[in-house]
Design a protein that fits this description.
The complex is a heterodimer.
Chain A: H1 4-47
Chain B: E1 12-13, E2 19-20, H1 31-51, H2 65-92, H3 95-127, H4 135-156, H5 160-187, E3 198-199, E4 202-203, H6 209-251
Antiparallel strand pairs in B: 1-2, 3-4
Helix pairs in contact in B: 1-6, 2-3, 2-5, 2-6, 3-4, 3-5, 3-6, 4-5
The chains are: A mainly alpha, B mainly alpha.
Chain lengths: 48, 258
């Protein structure tokens, strides 16, 4: 009973899920930093 | 017009006049940690595919074990972390424990998803079915649903204080499922194999040395990956709260021209 297809699918899907999450996390951090910069600029203008 | 609202205790005044929370950069995983985690994952994959002996009954499909079991044990770690963070949040009402719970829940759900993917792909060729509603599988599925409920509550739950409190309670309930998952194969007759790592005879007594070494390496790699993702997620959580606090401070004087 070898079933390489199941082994390959399990490993490929597991790694794909982790990779997808990593990319999503990086994108969320980048978007948040951009939004913080915008709000920071608004706050600085407000305090001038 | 100056605001008369009380200052948020989590905010500090920035020299520019803006408000900020504790720097989220401190929670970022270091490049060294990321490199060690990546090396451990590659070594673990090598050991699982090339070092560990082929199972005489199941054949190569048994190698899914070296991903499935470390992911499940890491999910246990995440649930335990959420449990302690929840207790500490309810006790101290310190937002930082809520942040830890939120980060651990999302990364825990990721490892739970890996368990839910690899399990059926291993079960199909060995048991002849993708899924069966037996005790171990069902209790693990319930834990995964608790993770999903926790994340949905965070996303759509209402006021931050209420969400933090409800999530803390849900985190404690989720932890109660852990002993049920672990002992399910002993308490009930199941298709799932008996424990081979945490056995009554001792740690790892149910496995030959090379298989035990491979699963141990897999566990180290999974825990390192968890640490990297957890720290990264914690940073995102803090950035998100920093943005929310800054927006709130902008809204305090809506009449002012920006």
């Amino acid at each position: 009973m070898d079933n390489f297809w199941y082994l390959f699918s399990a490993l490929a899907l597991a790694w794909a899920v982790v990779f997808f999450y990593l990319v999503t996390l990086a994108r969320r951090a980048r978007d948040l930093k951009q939004q913080i910069d915008v709000v920071q600029a608004q706050l600085e203008r407000k305090n001038d | 017009m100056a605001s008369t609202s009380p200052p948020d205790p989590n905010l500090e005044t920035h020299p520019s006049g803006a408000m900020e929370v504790d720097s989220p950069v401190r929670t970022s995983p270091s490049p060294g940690l990321i490199a060690v985690a990546a090396a451990a994952m590659i070594a673990s994959l090598y050991a699982a595919l090339l070092y560990a002996p082929t199972d005489s009954f199941q054949g190569n499909v048994q190698r899914i074990f070296y991903t499935h079991v470390p992911a499940a044990l890491t999910m246990y770690v995440a649930v335990t972390l959420i449990f302690f963070a929840s207790i500490l949040y309810l006790q101290k009402r310190d937002e930082r424990w809520d942040e830890v719970g939120a980060a651990a829940a999302e990364v825990g759900a990721l490892f739970g998803t890996v368990v839910m993917i690899t399990g059926p792909l291993w079960a199909r060729p060995v048991w002849g079915t993708w899924w069966t509603w037996e005790a171990r599988l069902t209790s693990t599925f319930v834990l995964w649903l608790i993770f999903i409920a926790y994340l949905m509550l965070r996303a759509y739950g209402g006021s931050p204080e209420q969400v933090a409190r409800f999530c803390a309670v849900l985190g404690i309930i989720g932890f109660l499922d852990l002993p049920i998952i672990h002992f399910s194969v002993i308490w009930w007759r199941t298709m799932h194999p008996q424990p081979v790592i945490m056995t009554e005879e001792g740690l790892g007594a149910g496995l030959p040395g090379s298989m035990l070494a491979t699963v141990a390496l897999g566990l180290v790699a999974a825990l390192l990956l968890f640490t990297v993702l957890f720290r990264h997620r914690l940073r995102v959580e803090r950035l998100s709260r920093q943005l929310l606090a800054m927006r709130r401070s902008l809204d305090l004087s809506p009449g002012e021209d920006l």
